[in-house]
């Protein structure tokens, strides 16, 4: 069977979200800049809207006010009757869904880039929610190629129980952008430069696509989430061991059964169990202590995309 073209409608509406987590400052800083001067993100024939998603959390430089905005874009929360009793972020989610959605509707924005920082040593990371989306695989391939030799990793969060309802999921093509390491409430020039380049290349890809450029079949390497691993805990539920020095800052590196993972204060090493190599991500992420996640295990696989071109050409 010969490979066929996938034709997609041209992209018309793009949003760039910053401040979904109010203490992840690169996205906040860039979006505020683009709201003042958006020349660098404008592309011919494309509406690009920069937007601060959680202004109250941004003002307080905290992750969120009542609950995590990046977890509440499910049909239950979006369908709740609006009232002052709802958590602030649920009310905000409904407002964002009204402005950029509605979710799962043909009127929703085509692409949403959601800008995040991590305290983990993850470098440039693109987050993919659908392994069968040729358009996004092609976009991610373009961004990775454009950034080279700087590495850019793809984190696939497609999982029946671990996938969550992200802020960006109201778009037809949701794109998570995660750059680190950067402490919460801090700006780093190198991290900002990397995120800025990722957005530039993404918008260039969309413009090329809209102008009729055909993207040939491609393949990308991705890291698919398998399991979230909590810290060892005592009978009170308190953390009883910390990330072992050999694992700290080793995001994306192979971790083998028997390798040190945790270390207790009395020097006991807790190794990785199981019988296969995994690739850890979000190692010792500050924001995930409350979520009981020391790191996530991923497996490495390759995704293929058909050639794509705009249906207008």
From TrEMBL:
Q: Which residues form the Succinylglutamate desuccinylase/Aspartoacylase catalytic domain?
A: 11-206
Q: How is the cofactor bound?
A: Binds 1 zinc ion per subunit.
User: Could you confirm whether the keyword Metal-binding appears in this record?
Assistant: yes
Q: Where in the cell is it found?
A: Cytoplasm; Nucleus
Query: Which CDD domains does the UniProt record give?
Result: M14_ASPA
Q: Tell me which residues this entry annotates as catalytic.
A: 178
* List of residues binding N-acetyl-L-aspartate: 63, 178, 288
Q: Where does Zn(2+) bind?
A: 21, 24, 116
GO cellular component terms listed in the entry, alphabetical order: cytosol; nucleus
Q: Hydrolase: is it a keyword of this entry?
A: yes
Listed binding positions for substrate are 70-71, 164-168
GO MF annotations, alphabetized:
aspartoacylase activity; hydrolase activity, acting on ester bonds; metal ion binding
Where is this protein primarily located?
cytoplasm
* One Pfam family hit: AstE_AspA_cat
Q: Which UniProt keywords apply?
A: Cytoplasm, Hydrolase, Metal-binding, Nucleus, Zinc
What is this enzyme's EC? Answer: 3.5.1.15
For activity, the cofactor(s) needed are: Zn(2+)
Q: Which family does it belong to?
A: Belongs to the AspA/AstE family. Aspartoacylase subfamily.
Which NCBIfam families does the UniProt record give? PRK02259.1 (NF002601)
The record's section on PANTHER family has: ASPARTOACYLASE (PTHR15162:SF9)
Q: Which HAMAP family match?
A: Aspartoacylase
Q: What does this protein do?
A: Catalyzes the deacetylation of N-acetylaspartic acid (NAA) to produce acetate and L-aspartate. NAA occurs in high concentration in brain and its hydrolysis NAA plays a significant part in the maintenance of intact white matter. In other tissues it acts as a scavenger of NAA from body fluids.
What name appears for this protein in its UniProt entry? Answer: Aspartoacylase
Q: Give the originating organism.
A: Leptonychotes weddellii
